[in-house]
Design goal:
- This protein is an alpha/beta fold.
- The protein folds into 2 domains: 87 residues, no CATH class; 278 residues, Alpha-Beta Barrel (TIM Barrel).
- It contains 12 helices and 14 strands.
- The protein has an 8-stranded parallel sheet with strand order 12-11-10-9-8-7-14-13. Strands 1, 2, 3 and 4 form a 4-stranded antiparallel sheet that branches. It has a two-stranded antiparallel ribbon with strand order 5-6.
- The longest helix is centred in the C-terminal third of the chain and has 20 residues.
- The mean pLDDT is 94.
Length: 376
């Protein structure tokens, strides 16, 4: 139940209270608001207010704070909360710059597409389609030609109930595909949680590690990424065990997911990974109900406060079927584009998709709308 936050509430908090400042009230024509709006990083998205939430134990109180009133609310906070709120604001404003992936430069001032290439027999959507290495590489090249900036190659299904496979088998599945794509000039990410697979894929030419466990599953994973000096995607999943969907219980899903990713970002920074090379992913569909997924999507802009690019992936996910009369996997394109449009409107920098051409078209329309609003 919503409880309003007032300035006096900020003076009576426990030592464990936490503050969360999420960009909200997005605006089309920021030039008409002078100094009363802010920009998310170096994106095309501007906002006019903060949705400020105070979590103290099990109690959450929230309010909308116009950008112009920010200083007054900061002054009302205890020093610890004020410092955190100021750091979150700085995270939102921090330019994301470019991802330099080999010879490819990926600009993050507008949403980019990451094409999904599963070389597995049992992935939930496209399992069995790309088990032949040559055919898989051709599919990757086709996605690149259709507009994907990065191709995400995965050799292990992480759908609910999927069996764990031996790392040697996973390497056999991905190594040749990664090598072929990299040789052809494609920017490649390796979707794995196993250090040995990361090493093999990076040696074959992969540029990014995309780990659904946020470098928690394999004790060596952090060291592999540090030594490689490559960008890494930290995804939220409730469990770092064999089944990433286990233990999906949340007191407040948006804040719980945020806190976990904040902790993993801090761990990476402490290990020596540059913040510019850390990408965060809230893990839509991993150990979360439909309602919890929707809460994460509606609150996606909160993750900008971590100061890292956001990767968002809802392509063909079960929640789309749940919202549309149990539409099967191959009939979820419309819902996918709608969710990715929502993510783009909140400033997400990377969208992970199966259907590249259709999502590229959606982004071009979104970009046209933004250009028209910003230049009118």
């Amino acid at each position: 139940m919503f409880q309003p936050l007032t300035k006096p509430d900020l003076g009576a908090v426990s030592a464990d209270a936490q503050i969360y400042c999420r960009p909200t009230c997005f605006v089309d024509r920021p030039h008409e608001l002078d100094d009363n709006c802010l920009r998310i990083a170096d994106s095309m998205v501007w906002f006019a207010a903060w949705y400020v939430s105070l979590r103290d134990g099990l109690t959450v109180k929230s309010t909308i704070v116009p950008v112009s009133d920010w200083d007054g609310w900061i002054a009302a906070m205890p020093d610890r909360l004020a410092e955190e709120a100021i750091a979150q604001r700085a995270g939102v404003a921090r330019p994301r710059g470019n991802l330099q992936l080999g010879e490819r430069t990926i600009r993050l001032n507008e949403p980019q597409l990451m094409g999904i290439l599963n070389v597995t027999p049992d992935s939930f959507s496209d399992g069995g389609k790309h088990v032949d290495a040559a055919a898989a590489a051709e599919a990757g090249f086709a996605m690149g030609a259709a507009g994907a900036a990065i191709i995400d190659v995965g050799g292990e299904s992480t759908r609910p109930g999927a069996p764990l496979i031996w790392e040697g088998d996973e390497i056999v599945r991905v190594e040749g595909v990664v090598a072929a794509l990299a040789k052809g000039g494609v920017a490649v990410s390796i979707d794995t949680r196993k250090a040995a697979v990361m090493e093999a894929a990076l040696a074959a030419g992969a540029n990014i590690v995309n780990d659904i466990s946020a470098l928690r599953y394999d004790d060596r994973a952090m060291d592999v990424v540090v030594q490689a000096g490559c960008p890494v995607v930290l995804m939220h999943a409730p469990s770092a065990k064999s089944d990433p969907h286990e233990d999906g219980t949340y007191a407040h899903v948006l804040f719980d997911v945020y806190d976990m990713l904040a902790e993993r970002v801090a761990a990476c920074l402490a290990a020596g990974i540059d913040r510019a090379k850390i990408i965060v992913d809230p893990g839509i569909g991993f150990g979360k109900s439909v309602g919890e997924n929707l809460a994460l999507i509606n609150g996606l802009a909160l993750f900008h406060t971590l100061g890292c690019p956001i990767l968002f992936g809802a392509s063909r996910k079960r929640m789309i079927g749940a919202l549309d009369n149990e539409a099967p996997v191959d009939q979820r394109l419309g819902g996918t584009v709608a969710l990715h449009y929502q993510a783009a409107a909140q400033g997400a920098q990377l969208l992970r998709v199966h259907d590249v051409a259709e999502n590229r078209q959606g982004l071009r329309v979104w970009r046209g709308l933004r250009d028209a609003a910003l230049t009118a």
